[in-house]
Amino acid sequence: MGKMKFAVTPGFEVGGTLFRPEQLAVLGSVIGDEGKVEMTTFKQLYVEMEEDRAEAAKSALEAAGLQIHPAGFYTKSLITCNFCKGAEEAGLSVARSLDEAIAGHETPSPLKIGYSGCALATGEPLLKDIGIVKMRDTFDVFVGGEAKTLKAALGRQLLSGVPEDRLIPVVLGLIRHFQAHGKKKEKFAKFIDRVGMDALREAAG
């Protein structure tokens, strides 16, 4: 019998990415004794289970308020801070809209996008492939963060002062440029080194 793998996330509220106990209970009940659950570094759970039961399981998980995303070489759901300064001030509604726009796009390699609601950057956006930091009423965008390997590096600032209505088009422009010009399994940081920051600024519009 074949296996299927997919990602599960609760989305986010003030306080961060929180699974409710009843959601975890549903997850345990629907995947069965043979299912596997893997904790990822980007705040998703990877679920592996029998393929013929997967669609019914996904429906049950969505009914419990969980979000389902593809696993593998895709943009991941938005990785955020805990919105410690409050939903409105930290831009929770902006983060929700950004998450809906960016999650689940097929890419040459997995793409992690981070968001923090203030300059404290507690969500570690500078360690993500694309990082967004809210700076009062505008946003700074960083690219090329790399938390793993012996050549770990902080992201470099690509744009500053991006207005709210331009943020999603900017990030989608970067994703599409990676889709169109990235090589299979090429990490985003390596892609940036190859194509250059100016090409990314142009792609971001």
UniProtKB/TrEMBL annotation:
Keywords: Iron, Iron-sulfur, Metal-binding. The keyword NAD does not apply. SUPFAM superfamilies: Nitrite and sulphite reductase 4Fe-4S domain-like. Gene3D superfamilies: Sulfite Reductase Hemoprotein, domain 1 (3.30.413.10). Pfam families: NIR_SIR. Transmembrane segments: none annotated. One of its GO terms (molecular function) is iron-sulfur cluster binding. The keyword Metal-binding applies. Residues 96-203 form the Nitrite/sulphite reductase 4Fe-4S domain. This is Nitrite reductase. It comes from Paenibacillus contaminans.
